[in-house]
């Protein structure tokens, strides 16, 4: 993971069935493919409210647990 690419507050790491690693970065979900170095955005931070946990299911679906103040 490249901190020089602006990946601050990396957390909630999970692996998909194809070996792709997913992580919460700055409130967004990004993917790291096995054959690439740069992260790919999957879910933008403005679509989530205080995400804190990430799960990737066997079929590739992603679940994100959020803390909402509402």
Describe this structure in words.
- By secondary structure, the protein is an all-beta fold.
- 0% of the residues lie in helices and 44% in strands.
- It has strands at residues 10-15, 21-25, 28-32, 40-43, 51-56, 62-66.
- The strands form 2 sheets. It has a 4-stranded antiparallel sheet with strand order 1-2-3-4, with no helix packed on it. A two-stranded antiparallel ribbon has the order 5-6.
**Shape by Cα distribution:** globular
Could you tell me the strand content as a percent range? 35-45%
Arithmetic mean pLDDT:
85
Helix content: under 10%
The secondary structure category is: mainly beta
Helix tally?
0
Low-confidence stretches: none
Secondary-structure element series: EEEEEE
Q: Main sheet: which strands, in order across?
A: 1-2-3-4
Report the sheet with the most strands, covering strand number, pairing sense and barrel closure: 4 strands, antiparallel
**What distance separates the N and C termini?**
33 Å
Number of E-state strands:
6
Radius of gyration of CA atoms, rounded to a whole number: 12 Å
């Amino acid at each position: 993971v490249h901190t020089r690419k602006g990946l601050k507050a990396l957390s909630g790491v999970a692996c998909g069935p194809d070996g792709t690693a997913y992580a919460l970065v700055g409130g967004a979900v990004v993917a790291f493919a096995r054959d690439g170095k740069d992260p790919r955005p999957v879910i933008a931070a403005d679509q989530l409210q205080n995400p804190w946990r990430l799960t990737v299911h066997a079929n590739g679906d992603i679940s994100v647990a959020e803390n909402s103040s509402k």
